[in-house]
């Protein structure tokens, strides 16, 4: 994977949302939704971001597209830092980067027909000459498995799965290179979800697309990804190729997250790492390692020093985790702390 | 409540041929169409199905919470041997929250934002057990302790907005369990929660179920949750039960092509799948345009003319497992060697 071309590079991305308060409506604090996140996506691969609600996975996706202006950091797309571009220059880049949203009911204009929805983006980006747009609509609908005769219907005439296909067709309409799929299959019933996942994989093969796939469902993520990022409270805690993440995970949070998923394997007794308590507030995140308040292995070091993402012996190239004690936990030297 | 309580029942709940429909001007939507199942005392029954399968309407029908234009048209709901459909509204009020409780999916919208947690738990004690405000509050603190909420003396005076999602769901459970119900209906109790919190809540429910020996009707679309918590499982499709078995049989030898398709279409976090996911082609038929034969026939890879024209019955085999599919009957007119685990086609 390392010899591949980097399509998107994110450096120290920060997204702080101000909290206004007091009689003058001044900024009194910040929600640190994304704090110093760095990663890269190679051309043609699927990189997934997983984590629980509030970990900053969706905010990361939105910040990359500047749907919310990031507080700090760099986002390099094809070697251009797009955070420095002005609005007009940025609009040119939007053709290359598209997003599919979670809720197919809320993300499509109910007053537009499918044809209008699909041609709007082509028109704005001038991606397809006017004469060819109708043909392109037909082709797009065919690509995502809808009938071309449905082009003049309104979104309410479609089921949830079909609407998500319209959302995908809209993203494809301008021939993007990167698609950010933000919980794109989460709202769908399982039998429909499988259809849409297969469609996304087919499109990737056909059009050599690159995906940033944001999801909380590790089953889907295992099926679709090449590499996976695990986030917790605005930080990356582990990044690895798919195999390493599921079979050689190093961070205690990744382990707990995987063990918490109910398994359909009724014959295997599974050991569960039960996390105590809830995710702390991102307004005042814990000092040191952000996971220390729930981590069974936490020590004083974890409570004071922020762990760096690092690779260590026994980990594949490119696999990194942010835990002070990962070597000692693996060797069994470091056991869960009793009064932690 | 007439006569002496009947203690001869084996099943805490027995539903026979339940039919619930919604009526529009010129259409009857049969949301629940002849559903039958039973829950043995102290056991957990899971009801799984996709949206529109009628699983939630079944649970609302049990508590008689169906409102206009919906109506329970027929069937029997035997709770401790007595038919709930024969009860008056006043009798139902004594049963709801007391003998049968319910937990809903969304803990934020099912708690009242203007009352404290203690007031909402205490309501059950005051209405069903006639306790004073002070006694009710004391018992509310005990309930919060039972469901594992830290510093319950402080939490009891807080409002729902001051609690996290997982905490709110614990409060919902505390309310539901306040009066030691014999049956708990949980409608997607963990769907809105994160997995690490879901694991906590499922653990808590299992622990309390054993401690209090109650029956649970767990409604969910998540087969993983079923595998971890249930004793028996009913799979619903388009208002009908298509398969009913114990949990182990369901996950090791599913019989109905819909159940098989459902399991194969869900990618698991602990398995690698080569190539495409297996899919169930098409989508759930509209209630206005129900197939006249087997409801699943238009999407079933094994469907024959028999399936398309005649609705199969829910047949019980010698182990007590139930299946609604022509393949397992003597009348089957397709390939006699048919193997439901081998898909003849895959469409995306």
Automatic annotation (TrEMBL), chain A:
Family affiliation: Belongs to the ABC transporter superfamily.
Gene Ontology MF terms in the entry: ATP binding; ATP hydrolysis activity
Name listed for the protein in its UniProt record: Peptide ABC transporter ATP-binding protein
InterPro entries according to UniProt: AAA+_ATPase (IPR003593), ABC_transp_ATP-bind (IPR050319), ABC_transporter-like_ATP-bd (IPR003439), ABC_transporter-like_CS (IPR017871), Oligopep_ABC_C (IPR013563), P-loop_NTPase (IPR027417)
Annotated SUPFAM superfamilies: P-loop containing nucleoside triphosphate hydrolases
Pfam families found in the cross-reference section: ABC_tran (PF00005), oligo_HPY (PF08352)
Alphabetical list of CDD domains matching this protein: ABC_NikE_OppD_transporters (cd03257)
PROSITE patterns in the record: ABC_TRANSPORTER_1 (PS00211), ABC_TRANSPORTER_2 (PS50893)
Record GO biological process: peptide transport; transmembrane transport
Domain (ABC transporter) ranges: 8-258
Gene source species: Oceanobacillus sojae
Keywords noted in UniProt: ATP-binding, Nucleotide-binding, Transport
TrEMBL record, chain B:
This protein's UniProt keywords: ATP-binding, Cell membrane, Membrane, Nucleotide-binding, Transport
InterPro entries: AAA+_ATPase (IPR003593), ABC_Ni/Peptide_Import (IPR050388), ABC_transporter-like_ATP-bd (IPR003439), ABC_transporter-like_CS (IPR017871), Oligopep_ABC_C (IPR013563), P-loop_NTPase (IPR027417)
UniProt-recorded Gene Ontology molecular function terms: ATP binding; ATP hydrolysis activity
Ranges where the ABC transporter domain occurs: 13-263
Protein's membrane topology: Peripheral membrane protein
Membrane-crossing segments per the record: none
A GO CC term attached to the entry: plasma membrane
Cellular localisation: Cell membrane
GO process annotations (BP): peptide transport
One Pfam family linked to the record: oligo_HPY
Family: Belongs to the ABC transporter superfamily.
Protein name in UniProt: Peptide ABC transporter ATP-binding protein
